[in-house]
UniProtKB/TrEMBL annotation:
UniProt entry keywords in alphabetical sequence: Acyltransferase, Transferase
Originating organism: Nonomuraea mangrovi
Official protein name in the record: GNAT family N-acetyltransferase
EC number(s) recorded for this UniProt protein: 2.3.1.-
One matching Pfam family: Acetyltransf_7
Domain N-acetyltransferase: start-end pairs: 2-181
GO molecular function, one term: acyltransferase activity
Length: 181
């Protein structure tokens, strides 16, 4: 039995070691990127309406986490994606998706616990009760479990083969109206 528990920014910051342990196991990032990613995540905790969920078996040791916050102008991801969507689809579309959005920033399940419904449960729980009219995210534009999960939850592609400034990998930007069906 997996229990999902919600936390705010203070506990999230206290548990950054746990967060990074799960992230590293799930994503296997290059070692030289881990410190930078940790700093970015720490910064995310300061964004408005930040909420993080941890999933843990009965022993209490977290095996998955997901977090999101209210997206708004001035945030790096929001501004980059807003500009790209405006260029591609016009200001009305960019405003409709990003004008009042929950940014689903991270979701990671330890490999030993993947494929058991935890990721799906975390996205549902994170979106539940949110006041925003949409949820948006980016994910590698490849046939991954994440791509499959988001499509199954109703997310549609807003941009594909998108390259973030300074990066080289292809991402998909996806969104769904809230509440989830
Ligand atoms: C993506 C991730 C969060 C999904 O969480 P999860 O707990 O493994 O997924 P779930 O068990 O809830 O499964 C959700 C759906 O994905 C499918 N799925 C799970 N693992 C899969 C895999 N390896 N390949 C294809 N589909 C997969 C499930 O079958 C399920 O779909 P279904 O309901 O149609 O059968 C998790 O696999 C993960 O942490 N991956 C590595 C890190 C990552 O990519 N994070 C997301 C970055 S945007």
């Amino acid at each position: 039995m997996i229990e999902i528990r919600g936390t705010g920014p203070a506990e999230f910051t206290e548990r950054l070691d746990t967060v990074m342990g799960i992230y590293t196991a799930a994503m296997n990032p290059p070692a030289d990127q881990i410190a930078g990613r940790r700093a970015i995540m720490r910064g995310h905790g300061a964004n408005p309406a930040f909420r993080c969920l941890f999933a843990a078996p009965p022993d209490g040791r977290a095996v998955a986490f997901a977090y999101g916050f209210h997206g708004q102008a001035g945030q790096w991801w929001h501004d980059v994606v807003y500009r790209a969507l405006r260029e591609r689809s016009g200001v009305a579309v960019a405003d409709a998706w990003l004008g009042d959005s929950l940014e689903l920033a991270e979701i990671h399940v330890h490999p030993d616990y993947q494929g058991k419904g935890i990721g799906r449960a975390l996205v549902h729980a994170l979106c539940e009760g949110r006041p925003e009219r949409s949820a948006v995210l980016s994910t590698h534009d490849q046939p991954t479990a994440a791509r499959h999960l988001y499509r199954a939850l109703g997310f549609t592609d807003l941009l594909t083969r998108f390259v973030f400034p300074g990066g080289h990998e292809h991402y998909a930007i996806a969104g769904t109206p809230l509440p989830l069906p």
